[in-house]
Specification:
The structure is a single chain. The protein is mostly beta strands and 506 residues long. It is built from six helices and 23 strands. The protein has an 18-stranded antiparallel barrel. Strands 1-7 form a two-stranded antiparallel sheet. A two-stranded antiparallel sheet has the order 17-18. α3 runs antiparallel to α4. The chain is globular, with a radius of gyration of 22 Å.
């Protein structure tokens, strides 16, 4: 563990020490790229299954089994059979033993028309490649563990993959962590993909858009009130004088279940940077709001604060509304120093007929959001967003999904995106003679419009994992070039076969 994270670790352990009451055995997390998760998200969207962790992914396999078991009350209905089949499949991930392990190897291939995983922001050439990963997961008492290295040649040439030195084959660690879990708290150190925000889009402050996110995560609280804090050291940058600039990301979130239908959360995200900088206690302390310690407190100059609000409300029957709102580097007294920068997502989801579900989302990121005058304080890691990866854009999407054969989920999607010329990895434009930044709040320059119609399928059928999505993109002002129109098929598919073994540790 890096020495500059010791302050956060110490504060986390102090908080955890008071919450070590006995609880059920530890459980690994259900990865956000697991092909069974979309089917579970579909059942949650319909209201058939309770969300074990609203707007927070991942959650533990044990929590997924808990909500599926609680919902599995009508096995003779179509949805009841879907729930039972998914519960049975996930049950094989755990063992009823004090110490156990499970190893799974997956081998297959993937084909794609472009490298970037985002079908609306294209990048890199299309081709086909083999894929292989080897996952080892298990638990020893109250400590769960997981590691999953992958050989993934498709990363070469992906504009969001930071390693540009490899030419033929490359790989990554998809997940690798230790997680101590107790009744009222957990402490997880290592790497796993996280998304904090409405399902279906990258969270504004923290998401799985980037490939590598090592860090330390503390959860403490009950089902009604829960505090979560995450800290990660980002890649070191080099400034114009050749000095190394250390950078850190800290995210705090306090959530409250106000009723069975309404949940709210306040959160903040912070980037701190500087030559020789360490993760200082005022920011590392999970019980210290960084916005007070920084903007309204010690007024540290080498940092960027973002504050936000999450809301999920089941308002009408099984129809649920969700929202995530953020203000980047909000200045209370000196409003002239920087323009307002914001990001937001609003959406709704619910059942559609006897088996289908629907989800509608709208998101907007202002032209200057997620960045500052100092690029080392942008919400990026090696040029890729820690949450969202694109500023100066908005997106509206409508999706309908239905299970097939109780294992696969088929989805249809309509989407419309507008992308201006603002870029998240660039510093803010210089002020004019009047001291203002003369750019619009959203949509700088020529705006690219993308309209997409697509179909997708995901799921696990026996040893076969399938994840695919393909559709037609109609683009005007392609790549922000006025008057340039493009029509493209954009698709990606991955097929793998699995072999697994498990046992107990004695």
């Amino acid at each position: 563990m890096p020495s500059d994270m010791r302050a956060f670790v110490g504060a986390a352990l102090v908080s955890l020490a008071a919450a070590t009451s006995a609880a059920a055995q530890a459980s690994p997390y259900l990865p956000v790229d697991d092909t069974r998760l979309p089917l579970l998200e579909h059942l949650i969207a319909r209201g058939d299954v309770e969300d074990p962790s609203p707007m927070m992914r991942p959650f533990r396999v044990a929590d997924a089994l808990r909500v599926l078991t609680a919902a599995d009350t009508a096995p003779n209905t179509p949805n009841g059979r879907d729930i039972a089949a998914l519960r049975e499949c996930l049950q094989r991930e755990l063992m009823d033993a004090e110490a156990w392990w499970r190893v799974e190897a997956r081998i297959g291939g993937e084909a794609y028309t472009q490298k970037r995983l985002d079908p609306l922001h294209l990048g890199g050439p299309g081709t086909e490649n083999p894929y292989f990963d080897l996952a080892l997961r298990g638990a020893v008492g109250k400590v769960a563990f997981a590691t999953r290295p992958a050989v993934e040649p498709s990363l070469i040439g992906n504009p969001d993959w930071p390693n540009t030195a490899q030419e033929n084959i490359t790989g990554r660690l998809v997940e690798g962590y230790l997680s101590a879990q107790f009744k009222f708290a957990s402490l997880t150190y290592g790497q796993l993909e996280r998304n904090w925000g409405p399902v279906g889009l990258p969270g504004i402050s923290l998401s799985d858009y980037g490939f590598q996110r090592q860090g330390l995560d503390l959860e403490i609280g009950t089902k009604k009130v829960r505090l979560e804090a995450f800290a990660s050291d980002l890649r070191t940058e080099i400034d114009s004088t050749g000095q190394n600039i250390n950078r850190y990301l800290i995210v705090h979130r306090l959530g409250a279940r106000l009723s069975q239908r309404l949940q709210l959360a306040l959160w903040e995200a912070l980037i701190i940077s500087g030559n020789g900088r360490v993760l200082e206690t005022p920011f590392a302390n999970p019980l210290s709001p960084s916005v007070l310690a920084n903007t309204f407190g010690i007024e540290d100059l080498n940092s960027n604060d973002m504050i936000g609000l999450d809301m999920q409300w089941r308002a009408l029957g099984r129809t649920t509304f969700t929202a995530q709102l953020a203000l980047d580097d909000f200045l209370f007294n000196k409003r002239y120093q920087a323009p307002d920068r914001w990001a937001l997502t609003v959406g709704a989801f619910g059942p559609l007929g006897p088996r289908a579900s629907w989800r509608a989302l709208y998101t907007q990121v202002s032209s200057l959001a997620l960045r500052t005058f100092d690029p080392f304080e942008n919400f990026t890691d090696a040029g890729v967003g820690t949450g969202r990866n694109f500023s100066d854009m908005d997106l509206a999407a409508l999706t309908a999904s239905v299970p097939v054969k109780r294992a696969l989920l088929v989805s249809a999607e309509l989407a419309m995106q507008r992308q201006g010329e603002g870029r998240i990895d660039a510093p803010l434009p210089a002020r004019n003679a009047a001291g203002n930044i003369d750019v619009p709040g959203i949509f700088i320059g020529t705006v690219e419009h993308t309209y997409r119609v697509a179909l997708g399928v995901t799921g696990r059928y026996g040893p076969l994992d399938i994840s695919g999505n393909g559709g037609f993109n109609h683009v005007t002002n392609d790549e922000n070039r006025l008057g340039v129109t493009a029509n493209r098929f954009v698709g990606r598919i991955r097929l793998t076969l699995a072999w697994s073994r498990k046992g107990t540790l004695k």
